Amino acid sequence: MTVSMQGQEAGSIQRMPIVGSGKIWEEMLAREFSHHRQGIARINNGSFGSCPRSVLEAQQRWHRQWLEQPDEFYFGPLEKGLRASREAIASIIRAPDVEEIVLVDNVTTAAAMIAQDMAWGFLEKRFHPGDAILMLNCSYAAVKKCFEAYAVRAGARIIEVELALPILSARQIIDSFQRSLEQAAKSSTTIRLAVIDHITSMPSVVLPARDLVALCRDAGVEQIFVDGAHAIGNIELSVEEIDADYYSSNLHKWLFAPHSVAFLHAKAKHLERLHHPVVSHNFKLGLFSECSWVGTRDYTSQLAVTAAVEFIDGNLGGLSSLIAFNHRGAMAMAEMLAAAWGTQCGTCAELASSMAMVELPAKLEVASEEAALEMRTRLRREFGVEVPICFQAGGSPSANSKSKRSGTAYARVSHQIYNKLEDYARLRDAVKSLAR
Questions:
Q1: DSSP class per residue in 123-158
Q2: Are 156 and 147 in contact (CB under 8 A)?
Q3: What percentage of the chain's residues is helix, strand, coil (to nearest 5)?
Q4: pLDDT digits over 294-335, tens only?
Q5: Cα angle, residue 386 at apex, residues 384 and 388 outer, rounded to 5°
C-alpha cells in the first residue's frame, strides 16, 4: 500500500513507510479491522489498542471450549493455555525464566501487588514512616493513586521527578532523576522504591529505562518497578537487560491482544512476597497459582495471547518489522502536523515510539486540563477525530509562537497498521479550522 496525498501548504506529505503492500495486504487490513466504526480518524491506539478479528475469533473459540465443559477445561486446557501465553511473552521480552512471569488484567493490577507489598513493609516495621517512593510527576494517574492508596496510607511519601516537554535528549531525563536522588540523599531520605515509566502516557516519551535503573541502584534505591504499559509491541524490550525488580506491560495496547491482559515480570527473590490483590482459593500457593485462578471469571483474553503473536508473525513479518514501521509512521505524521501548524514535536525521534507529541497552535487557547479535554471532545464530535490532548502547565511554546501563555498543549498521535494518511490530514485540517 503506497499512498500519497496533496494539500499541505508547506508541500506534499511524504509517502508513508509500509510494512506490507498490494491487494493481499489491503484485504487483510479490511478483514481484520472491519469492526472499526467507519468515518473516524482513529489515531489513538495508545489508549485502548485494537484487536484484529482473527485474534477475537481465537478468543471466542477458547470461550466456547470453556462453556462446553468448564470442569474439564479448568483441570487441563486452562493451565496449559496460560503456560503457552507466558512462554510466548518470555520469548518476546527476553526473560530468562518463564516462572518469573505471571498474567494479570493490566499494569494497574501489577502495581497494586507491588504497592500492597510496600504497605506491608511499613506494617511489619521493615520500612519507616517518611521513607519514600520516587516517581515522575507525569506517571500514570492510576498507578500513582495505587501507591497513594496502599503505601502512602501506610507511611510512605512520594517524591516526584519533574519532566516537561520539549525533551531533546535522554540526558535531560537522566539529569532530572539525578537531581531528585541527590536531594533525597541530602535530606537523609531513604527511597524504598523507584517507579520508572518506560514510555510515559501523557505526555508520551520513551525513557532510558536501563540507564535510570542503574542510576537508582547506584543511589541505593532498594527496589525498582518499571511501568511499561505501552512498551510490548511498541519498542524492543529486554527485561534482563533493563534489570528492574519488577516490569509490567499491557498486551492489549500494542501487541493486538484482546482486552484486558498484561504481564508482570518479577525477579525470583520477590515472588514469595507478592500476592494478587483479589484473594481467592490459591492464596499462598505461589504468585502464578494466585494469578491463574482469581475465582470464576473470563480468562480468554490471557489465553488468546498466542493468537496475537501468530497474527504479527504471520501477517506483519514479525514484531521488529511492526515496531519499526509504526515508529517511522508516527514520526512522519508528527513532523507533517508540526510543519502544517507552525509548531514543534515534543521529543526527538529517539525518544518517541509509535506515539509522538505535537504542539498545538497557540490560537486554540488550550490553557488547562479541562480545556484539553474539551478540545478532544470537539475533535471527536465535530470532526470525527479521536486523539488525546495534553496540557502541560509551564511548558515552553515553540520558538516561532507569539504566545505568552504559561503552558503548552500537545496532541498525542499514535500510529498503527490500520491508519491511513487521511486520518492525520483530517486532524491537521480540523486543528487549522479551529485555529482560524
A1: HTTSS-TT-EEEEETTS-HHHHHHHIIIIIHHT-EE
A2: yes
A3: 50, 15, 35
A4: 999 999 999 999 999 999 999 999 999 999 999 999 999 999
A5: 145
Q: pLDDT, tens digit, for every residue of 31-66?
A: 999 999 999 999 999 999 999 999 999 999 999 999
Instruction: Give SS3 for 89.
Output: helix
* Beta carbons of 74 and 82 less than 8 angstroms apart: no
pTM of the model: 0.92
Distance, CA of 229 to CA of 282 (rounded, Å): 26
Grid coordinates given for 143: 498507578
Which amino acid, residue 4?
Answer: S
DSSP H helices, 124-244, are 141-147, 153-154, 170-186, 209-218, 239-242
Residues 356/435, Cβ–Cβ less than 8 Å: no
- Return d(Cα 109, Cα 41) in angstroms, integer: 31
| Per-residue pLDDT tens over the stretch 345-392 | 999 999 999 999 999 999 999 999 999 999 999 999 999 999 999 998
Residue with cell 505535537: 358
C-alpha 166/C-alpha 395 separation (Å) is 8
Strands 191-197 and 132-136 turn out to be parallel
Q: Calculate mean pLDDT across residues 149-174.
A: 94
Q: Specify burial of residue 111 (Cβ count, 10 A radius: 0-12, 13-18, 19+).
A: buried
* Distance (Å, whole) CA 131 – CA 10: 54
